Amino acid sequence: MSVLDNFEQWKDFLAERLEQAQQQGLTQQVITDVAYQIGDYLAKHVDPKNPEERVLADLWSVADEKEQHALANMMVKLVQQK
Fold first, then answer.
1. Which one-letter DSSP state was computed for residue 50?
2. Rounded Cα–Cα distance for residues 44 and 8 (Å)
3. C-alpha to C-alpha distance for 31 and 6, rounded to whole angstroms
4. Which of the four pLDDT bands, split at 50, 70 and 90, describes residue 10?
5. Cβ neighbour number for residue 18 with a 10 Å cutoff
6. Pfam families recorded for this chain (predicted)?
7. N or C: the chain end with fewer CB closer than 10 Å?
């Protein structure tokens, strides 16, 4: 099973990658920029595997670039809460 199949696993995966990035000294801005790039890639190339991903994909598709950056930032904040 892929981490994309289950939203909780996806959040756990992102939280682990976030922790690694912070340990390597990446700034919050760089992390958010990378999250935006990942979100953009997923929206363009990966079919949502669960309802949560479908909502995120739908929101991404109607957002302008500034809103997409905000959405990426919110995902970073969401996984930081764990």
1. S
2. 22
3. 23
4. confident
5. 19
6. DUF3243 (PF11588)
7. N
pLDDT number for residue 8 = 84
Instruction: State how far the Cα of 42 lies from the Cα of 58, in Å rounded to an integer.
Output: 12
In the numeric block, the tokens 């990446």 are attached to 26
For residue 13, give Cα distances in angstroms to 7, 16, 65: 10, 5, 25
Contact between 71 and 39 (Cβ < 8 Å): yes
**Domain-by-domain residue ranges, the chain?**
7-80
| pTM score of the predicted model | 0.82
The amino acid at residue 77 is K
pLDDT confidence bin for 17, thresholds 50/70/90: confident
- Residue 72 structure tokens: 């990426």
